[in-house]
Amino acid sequence: MNIYMDFYTVVGSLALVLLIISLTLYGVYYNKLIIAAFPETQDPCPKMWRVDICGNCYKPTGTLNNLDITTGNTPSSSIITMNDVNTGFKPADSGWNSWNGAKSSICGKKKWCDSNKIEWNGISNYNSC
């Protein structure tokens, strides 16, 4: 009985040591990984918005989702006004870079989407701001 007890003690100790070493190596490796921003691509405009050949985004007309916003809280130079009504904005405007304390243009657009409850694939679900 004593021989079996020593065998199981040695095997159990060895397994425990190997487990600790492998978890340590995994932790060191995982800590050095650079987590990529998700998603890698983005739509040119919010969901259901129109885009023109210049890349400008225009609010959808009618009673659609993603419409309940005012473009007046975008960077002032990005607003597109027609007939004294804010109808859209320019996503490529450099004002997004620091809009509302953002650290980049994509983060400025994400803050805008979050504050207006806008769905914009690649912006509203961006994870690196």
Could you characterize what this model shows?
It is a single chain. The protein is an alpha+beta fold and 129 residues long. 33% of the residues lie in helices and 10% in strands. Strands 1-2-4-3 form a four-stranded antiparallel beta sheet, with no helix packed on it.
Could you name the key traits of this structure?
single chain; 129 residues; alpha+beta; 2 domains; 4-stranded antiparallel beta sheet; 2 helices
For the largest beta-sheet, the strand count, sense and barrel status come to:
4 strands, antiparallel
Beta-strand level of the residues, as a percent range? 5-15%
State Rg. Answer: 26 Å
Stretches where pLDDT falls below 50 for ≥5 residues? none
Question: Which structural class fits the helix and strand makeup?
Answer: alpha+beta
Order of helices and strands: HEEEEH
Average pLDDT reading: 80
Helix content: 25-40%
Number of strands: 4
How would the global form be characterised?
A: rod-shaped
Q: Domains counted in the coordinates: how many?
A: 2
Number of helical segments with 4 or more residues: 2
Going across the major beta sheet, what is the strand order? 1-2-4-3
| Distance linking N and C termini | 61 Å
